[in-house]
Amino acid sequence: MKPLTLRELNRATLARQLLLQRAAAAPVDVVHHLVGLQAQVPQNPYTALWSRLGGFEPASLSGLLEERAVVRVGVMRGTIHLVTADDCLLLRPLVQPVFEGQLWRHRDYSPELRELELEPIVAFGRSLLDERPRTGTELRALLAERFPDVSAAALVYACQMRLALVQTPPRGLWRRSAQVAWTTAEGWLGRPLDHSPALDDVVLRYFAAFGPASVADLTTWSRLTGLGSVVERLRPRLVGFRDERGRELFDLPDAPRPDPDAPAPVRFLPEYDNVLLSHDDRSRFVSTEDRDALRPVWGVGWGAVLHDGVVRGTWRAEENGVVVRHVPLSQRAVDAICAEARRLARFLGIERAVRPELVSPRGRRRGG
């Protein structure tokens, strides 16, 4: 079984993620290929696609949301993703065990909900949300009126965990801010959920977008359990490798695995991007040393900066410009990062300067 170095794994995954070279592809096709984009921060998918597509226009993605060709819905790991309409109907039933686990693990709501018959509650919630999109405040008020002896927040949570709910526009539109309003996926898309989703096909799509990868990586991406048996069933359709730690990895036979010396241009990733969230072992993208150095400056609101394919800095858009915090790099590398940051600033409509800040190995920083 052929061993793969971290750099070979890095280049292979970057190629599938369209981060080695910007693609000439339709946004909806890229959203499908990547099995969705992490989207709990509403503007994140725009930066994610800008870093992957040549000539990406934000209005094209907003248009897809308004046309209901893509939707914002909780799927993998129970988090909000931007997925195609077809994938919404496929993936949401597939990951219901994840939501069921969250329902019964909630510290505050689970004890109260265990004493209730949830079917009538969820059915009433469905009727309300099928009628029209509703905010959390509206839904709490209506559920409290119908079930006055139960915590309204717990009732809403039960509906969120048991129903396939999408967040409707203007939430998620380019440079728009709006309160979350929910409706059922079936009502919004005018089609039923797929109640016999093909898990094998989704696993193969994971390897196509994130491979080569292990069963533990696949589990981290989806948060589903028991996937080892699925991979064993698919083994005749896969090729096997080993990483530098001896872990068994799987991949599609014809998936791209570029030369490890293939150039990897600077790329700016949003605060949440699945390329950094979909492996149990993330060492192909960030070293322990750099992760430790960046940890104090890699918090909420900060995206990641890839240089030579790995995370070497973090960034955030502020009123006075794009701030980039990076580990010690050559001046040539810093110049390349700043040039990409200026292009990103123009995309985001920021006219101010780029501010690089050096991060010391212990996490201290100083202006560059």
Summarize the structure.
With about 375 residues, the protein is of the alpha+beta class. It is built from 16 helices and 15 strands. It has two domains: about 1-190, no CATH class; about 285-365, Trna Endonuclease, Chain: A, domain 1, CATH 3.40.1350.
Provide the descriptors you would attach to this structure in a database record.
single chain, 368 residues, alpha+beta, Trna Endonuclease, Chain: A, domain 1, 2 domains, 6-stranded antiparallel sheet, globular
The chain-level mean pLDDT equals 95
Roughly how much helix do the residues carry, as a percent range?
40-55%
The stretches of 5 or more residues where confidence is low (pLDDT under 50) are none
Total count of helical runs of at least 4 residues = 16
Total beta strands: 15
N- and C-termini, Cα separation: 46 Å
Strand order of the largest sheet: 2-4-3-6-7-5
Overall number of structural domains: 2
Strand portion, in percent?
15-25%
Q: How would you describe the overall organization of this protein?
A:
The protein is α+β, with helices and mostly antiparallel strands and 368 residues long. The protein has 2 domains: 2-189, no CATH class; 286-367, Trna Endonuclease, Chain: A, domain 1, CATH 3.40.1350. It has helices at 6-16, 27-33, 44-50, 58-66, 85-94, 96-105, 110-113, 118-131, 136-146, 152-162, 185-189, 199-210, 215-222, 227-234, 288-294, 331-348; strands at residues 2-3, 37-38, 70-74, 80-84, 134-135, 165-167, 181-184, 239-242, 248-251, 267-269, 303-307, 310-318, 321-326, 354-359, 365-367. It has a 6-stranded antiparallel sheet. A 6-stranded mixed sheet has the order 10-11-12-13-14-15. A 3-stranded mixed sheet has the order 1-8-9.
